[in-house]
Amino acid sequence: EAEVAFAALRNGTIMVYDLDASKLLMTMGAGSVANTGAKELRPQQASPVQELAPRTHGGPALCCLPIATSSTSEASQCTGAPSILVAGYALGRLGAWRLPTGSCCMPSTWEAAHNGRVVALTARASGEELLSASSDGLIKAWSLGSERFGDLHSSFPGHSAAVVSVAASPFDQGLFLSGSHDRTMRLWDPRRGTDGGVVAQWRQNEWVTCVDFSPIVDMHIFSSNKSLHSWDVRRPGACPLTSSHWHRKLVSRFCLDPMRLASCSLDGCV
Do 162 and 181 meet the contact criterion of CB atoms below 8 Å apart? Predict the structure, then answer.
């Protein structure tokens, strides 16, 4: 199965890159690594293989997400290959393409998905539902099923400022996290009828820029501002368990797996 990467671009298109190791361009610098004599290794460069354009202009593309939906073939599900790519736009629209063909499949309901920038996306319920987060302060859930593709399932108000991050639980298909410029991180469970589905809330002293669940401990969640914080879902409103990765400016993104935790910041550091 081909390995590809996707990039959301300011001109509104999504660029697809080939990550085949045999095709990556790895160049050697003219200088050498200090005190070793070894040649400096520059970053590998992937080749663009496809450019996906939206059906109608929605401004700059701000985020994109490949999704392996439950309606894909059995072979695709076994390999984990994505069958659809969704993108969020500055003018509040969502875009969608079938993979690997790249054919546009954006439903009409997504032309005005939000009243603000769509800046974060995640999939839950085994790829049956898309969550979109926007600067209008809302999180919306959309159907990805073949029969009701693009239908709005529900809307989740509650944040008093832009929602800039959303993440689905890998342990419980009903739970998801959101992070907002109102300086709060919220845990949601739409199956509960009280408080709009909000289960718990934590407050930071600065914008919450990114949120995620621990991939190995179901009771631990993470958030970021100028540093990374881990929290216990059993202690709503409590202080973080740990804080690390201290940056001089806001963290723009972090990524964690069972072995590593990486963060990048507006201060230019990783």
Answer: yes
Calpha distance 159→164 (Å, rounded): 11
Gap between the terminal Cα atoms of the chain: 30
- Residue-wise pLDDT for 148-179, tens only, equals 999 999 999 999 999 999 999 999 989 999 99
Nearest residue to 253 (alpha-carbon basis) of 184, 167, 144:
167
Beta-bridge mates of residue 244? 228
CB 97 within 8 A of CB 54: no
- What does the block give as tokens for 85? 């790519």
Cβ-in-10-Å burial (0-12, 13-18, 19+) of 246 comes to: exposed
CA distance 209 to 199: 20
Residue 74: pLDDT over 60: no
Is-contact 177 188, C-beta < 8 A?
yes
Tokens linked to 224:
């970021």
CA distances from 148 to 125, 145, 169 (A): 15, 6, 23
Long-range CB pairs of 223-228, under 8 A, 24+ apart, other chains included = 223/179, 223/185, 224/250, 224/251, 224/254, 224/263, 225/250, 225/251, 226/250, 226/251, 226/265, 227/251, 228/254, 228/261, 228/263
pLDDT tens sequence across 206-216: 999 999 999 99
pLDDT band at 69 (very low <50, low <70, confident <90, very high): confident
**What is Dmax (Cα atoms) for the chain?**
65
Q: Is 237 exposed, middle or buried (0-12, 13-18, 19+ CB in 10 A)?
A: exposed
Mean pLDDT of the 3-15 span: 95
